[in-house]
Amino acid sequence: MPDASLYTPRFNVMEAEDVRPFVEAVATAQLVTVGEDGVPDATFLPVLWEGDRLVGHLARANAHWRRIVDDSPALAIVTGPDAYVSPSWYAAKAEHGKVVPTWNYSVVHLRGSVVVHDDAEWVHALVTRLTDRHESPRDEPWAVSDAPDDYIEKNLRPIVGVEVVISSVEAKAKLSQNRSDSDRAGVASGLAADGRDPAGLVVE
Fold this sequence. Notes:
The chain is an alpha+beta fold. Helices cover 28% and strands 35% of the residues. It has 6 helices and 6 strands, in the order αβββαβαβααβα.
């Protein structure tokens, strides 16, 4: 069997204590599953990581959920900011010229078994938690209970819940950790000059 793990050089391993906060901050994932016919499906969806489970919802009109076999393997891919890194930004370019382009990014792979929840009560509770998660920082947060019950019920019908019981977590942060301080400073300056915030794209 081929190794299905996320390729992660030792200097790109995300610190364990940073993984859950990273996923919680991104709050979305690409859910990848394979149907009985062997054809893969992928859907971008809002997620919450609760204990050992990742939960979210898909549109009922999206055929993906109907192709999911309960308890079959799933992969949820959570990605942070990413950016092209020009070799011209490295101090090493002027020193010896032995530099090449690369790409900086962070990603978390959550693997496990997936279950569909076509249940109005389950989905209502999920949507309430998702809403609270994103509205809580606001001065006047909106709540699901702010809308009429029949209106909420009507808007819940077009969505279906999904849950991944997580069996493994792999996390990678490729942020120029293998470069010198001067090279990293050059990457940060280059990103800023390109209008990109270096935070989360190059380690300090």
